[in-house]
Predict the 3D structure of the following.
Amino acid sequence: MKLRDNFLLAVALTAASAVSYAQQRPDPAVPGYAYGERKLAKAPYTMADLKGLQASLLFTAEDVEALRQSKEILADQTDAILDVWYGFVASTPELVYFFSNAKSGEPDGAYLEAVRKRFALWILDTADANYDQRWLDWQYEIGLRHNRLKKNKTDGAPSVAQVNFRYIPALTIPVTTTLKPFLAKKGASPADVEKMHAAWVKSVLMQSILWSQPYIKDGEF
Amino acid sequence: MKLRDNFLLAVALTAASAVSYAQQRPDPAVPGYAYGERKLAKAPYTMADLKGLQASLLFTAEDVEALRQSKEILADQTDAILDVWYGFVASTPELVYFFSNAKSGEPDGAYLEAVRKRFALWILDTADANYDQRWLDWQYEIGLRHNRLKKNKTDGAPSVAQVNFRYIPALTIPVTTTLKPFLAKKGASPADVEKMHAAWVKSVLMQSILWSQPYIKDGEF
């Protein structure tokens, strides 16, 4: 079973590599969205590291399939998903703080809006589940943008210096809990909704772990 | 709804504090189990930090209830759960490595067995869901024991220097996936099994975040 899963995952990853160049060019309509841009720094973790992490997360080819099944379901719902998600952030002082103006303490509307446009593309990218070096490099860039090393720079935002580490893996729960009703809105069977939801939980947790790398002491990631 | 949940959580936490001294004395039959021992260092995070983290994880009084409901179900199944769990670790080279003898590279049986005894108590402690300063201090100690600062010291194990950070939050998935069938074995309704499972996912992720603190750069946790 495990060997078979690994084999299927390898097949899926190979197929993913073949199509990913066509799918993930930076979208010029969304400032700061840089997935696939050659100027991105190379991630400090490798594809082999990713495979080990996926094994420890029970992330298999079935999860890749389930994520891709979710793309068509979610594609025209990203705005509605982001309304719910931003509602949660706005009502949680610990989270809205990270979007606040560092001087006034008030939420920064322009910053929230700039992030929101990239967030919509992130939903689709997560559903694409194409794992290659360019994907790794983009995860690293996303991590840097949460850390004090690069937060606020993309949007020139006048906000606080960092998103504290502890909230990054934690957000796996509200992001995927928020998503679940939307997965169920297009007639997928309850069993398929469960599979897609479980795959999303694994993928978001996996990404949040990669995003955490800039926070980790040297040699301990 | 949110206010009500916070209120119920406060009530649950107060009730928990009242009984926790009686419940969590160190078990002298399990070497290295030190929950509640006064010699433990004070955690670098506070009860207020924990509340913020719980809010960001959507962890409410319902989750406390669901965890406690799971205790009676799991209490006589910890050995069977650990058989499955250890089977997964043994079959995943990335994970069994952390139990290996640093010189021979072979899994260290005595170390695995010593950790297993504490793991059984951890299952029950997680189900108890008693959150107070002693619980926080014990989470910090568990984190230190994964990090190079204290790994191997409790058992005098001749093992590798650290569990790499990235596997710690990742293990939320196999731990809680392993657990789910056991939650269903004592006749709880499917809806209750889902609630207990969801509460376990939140609790294990929350704990893994606290355990990660020793890995995080100063001021970024």
Summary: The mean pLDDT of chain A is 91. The radius of gyration of chain A is 17 Å. The CA atoms of residues 67 and 127 of chain A lie 5 Å apart. Chain A is about 60% helix and 0% strand.
